[in-house]
């Protein structure tokens, strides 16, 4: 088994996280920036964007999520929702992933034959960027999950952190020290997923 495959196996959804990460914020930024910069994108468009929230900004995000969810959640279910959000807020920080729609629109104008495909390729790019960062963090013993409270929180997030209008929020990744490992992972039979031909 290659070291790369071992790294992929190490990347899991870690829901029990804390804020006692040994790496500095600068070191974390470098890992996140480099992982995104090395992620492939259609026509090398480099359409992925990221905002890293630490400390007060990190806490503010999950307060925004809670405030936006409260009117939409049955009162009897809200304590469970609050507990889930508190588990994300307990981490070291959150990465907000975006795709720059101006980049996508420009490519659609330049390459009209492929215009319909660029939004799909953008989704693939953000997924790969998220996976790259997630795996890079796991290599450093940092747990994370990917959450999707967009588009519910888009307006408040854009207002709070002055996000460019062309940046479309695609996911939120709370991360931190691993307080409890992920459970065992079950795999489908290879014969149900893969085919090989000669």
Report on this model:
Pfam families: Nitroreductase. It comes from Vagococcus proximus. This is Nitroreductase family protein. Residues 9-176 form the Nitroreductase domain. InterPro entries: Frm2/Hbn1 (IPR033877), Nitroreductase (IPR029479), Nitroreductase-like (IPR000415). This protein is of the alpha+beta class and 198 residues long. It contains 8 helices and 5 strands. Strands 1, 2, 3, 4 and 5 form a 5-stranded antiparallel sheet that branches. It is globular. The model has no long low-confidence stretch (mean pLDDT 97).
Helix content: 40-55%
Q: Oligomer, anyone?
A: single chain
Structural class: alpha+beta
- Poorly predicted regions are none
Instruction: Report how far the terminal alpha carbons are from each other.
Output: 24 Å
Largest sheet: 5 strands, antiparallel
Number of strands: 5
Secondary-structure element pattern, one letter each:
HEHEHHEHHEHEH
> On the 0-100 scale, what is the average pLDDT?
97
Dominant shape:
globular
Nearest-angstrom radius of gyration? 18 Å
Helices, by number, come to: 8
Strand content: 15-25%
Itemize the secondary structure elements and their pairings.
Elements: H1 3-10, E1 16-18, H2 25-37, E2 48-54, H3 55-69, H4 78-89, E3 93-100, H5 101-110, H6 118-139, E4 142-144, H7 154-161, E5 167-180, H8 190-193
Task: Provide a compact summary of the structure.
The chain has 198 residues and is α+β, with helices and mostly antiparallel strands. It is built from eight helices and five strands, in the order αβαβααβααβαβα. The chain is 46% helix and 18% strand.
